[in-house]
Design a protein that fits this description.
The protein is mostly helical. The chain folds into two domains: 2-45 and 124-251, no CATH class; 52-123, no CATH class. It contains eight helices and three strands; from the N terminus they run αααβββααααα. It has helices at residues 2-6, 9-45, 55-65, 95-98, 103-120, 125-157, 163-206, 211-251, and strands at residues 71-74, 84-85, 90-93. Strands 1-3-2 form a three-stranded mixed beta sheet.
Length: 252
Amino acid sequence: MNKINDLPKTSKDETIVAWTTFAFLILALIIFILLITTWIYYSWIRKNNSKGYTGKEITEEISKKANINMEIKNSWFYVKYWNYNKRKNMYRLRPWTYSRNSIWTIMEATQQVYVTTIKLKKKKEIWLVFWIPVILRVTGYIFAVIFLFIGIKDFKELEKENSNWLDNIKWLWIGIAMLTIFSFHTIADILRIIVIRKNVLSILKEMKFTNEEISSINKIYICRLIYSITAFFLEINKLIIKIILKIWDFIK
């Protein structure tokens, strides 16, 4: 640590950023390997479920319980969670979700038909799954624009004053703008994962899947959630550290 303190300021900042980036990278890599291992196990090793459902069959079962009658086809081309074609009354699943019956397949098929169901039935959960995440993302961009505007204003007002302070202010507002966008996007993704997880597990309990299967699917969601959070910090840790260092320099 003393060696880092003895370095010139620029070198010291770069060293701190490099080490924290390396730490987050290792953590993200470990969680990514865990997620891939989980996918391989629950998709290719655990190839069957206790009910014997394929993705198509569990989709039919859930949609019937919701009094939704639609044609289910396999398709490569659709955006996830936008499976339903209202004009054709057709619901699409990708081939590996349509015909397979692994634990991972059951999770994917259930969450997709759940989202379609709340959209068609116009349930209040649609706000938590769609509209609030959209609002959060848009809000992030709005705040980012505001912060950039403040940064430009500071730049013009302080242009003839202390240049070092000016650099700190300018970089600080740009950094905060970028941090806001990343933060609101991640919060939106986390909210969606939490809401979908809760309802998918509830649906599978009602359908009498085993506790072990439900616990396995819960583990998959937890891995996804942790990876999403870790990936977020990996993306913005440089911004956070630089903002902290700029604020510290400004205070000193």
